[in-house]
Amino acid sequence: MTSYAQPLARAVASLVTEHDVTDVLAHFLTDGQEALGAAAAGLLVRSGTGELEVLTTTSHRAIDLEAYQAQQQTGPCADADDTGEYVFASGAHDIATRWPGLTASLAVTPYQAVQAHPMRWHGHVLGAITFFFAEPGAESRDQLVVGQAFADMATLILLTPHEIGGSEIATRTRHALMARAIVEQAKGVLAYQCGIPIDQAYDTLLNLARTEGVTLSEAAAAIVRRASRTG
Predict the structure, then answer these.
(1) Residues 160-169, mean pLDDT to the nearest whole number
(2) Which of the chain's termini has less CB crowding within 10 Å, N or C?
């Protein structure tokens, strides 16, 4: 597996300039294939009518496999899209057992293992990315994390608007600054109430947000509200 920092950096850079989504995703998918040491990769997305369609692949063999999954609604990519969960299978027997319909298509390819990652966006699954490997292998935590990072970045590439107006930029910046001000207030409240240094108060706030499963801004706002009621 090669370093994935550079391809992710290139993808991020593309989002802050004018870009062609199809072109960026095609190159990004190739980068993901190389980063994971895969032999091929493909990306399926849901159309406006809810049907899976092939958006891009890195090889003609992968096109056939992805097209079959889109048409038959079965296979690792289709499963990842349907469940919103990571999918992995290795070895001809495992793959044939889970997806019998793929057996004939895979028999004419060099692929011996597959892993698929859902493209998730605010509780919705928009599609999935599949990586095909030439050799069987065991599941790897690193591959899972890296593969999902590529799926998440592909989602951002697909959905990031080409242009945001000046007023919208100003609004988003203002909201971010307002949220930051509340965080600073919450740090002060915690430092005073707990008798701790301000940097420790920030760590306490971060841990509180993680423990309660809320955002940093939400945790800070709750602290400030409680302090105002009891003050």
Answers:
(1) 66
(2) C
User: What does the pLDDT look like over 125-145, one tens digit per residue?
Assistant: 999 999 999 999 888 888 899
SS (H, E, C) the chain: CCCCHHHHHHHHHHHCCCCCHHHHHHHHHHHHHHHHCCCEEEEEEECCCCCEEEEEECCHHHHHHHHHHHHHCCCHHHHHHHHCCCEEEECHHHHHHHCHHHHHHHHCCCCCEEEEEEEEECCEEEEEEEEEECCCCCCCHHHHHHHHHHHHHHHHHHHCCCCCCHHHHHHHHHHHHHHHHHHHHHHHHHHHHHCCCHHHHHHHHHHHHHHHCCCHHHHHHHHHHHHHHHC
Q: Which domains does the chain have, with CATH numbers?
A: 5-159 (3.30.450.40), 166-230 (1.10.10.10)
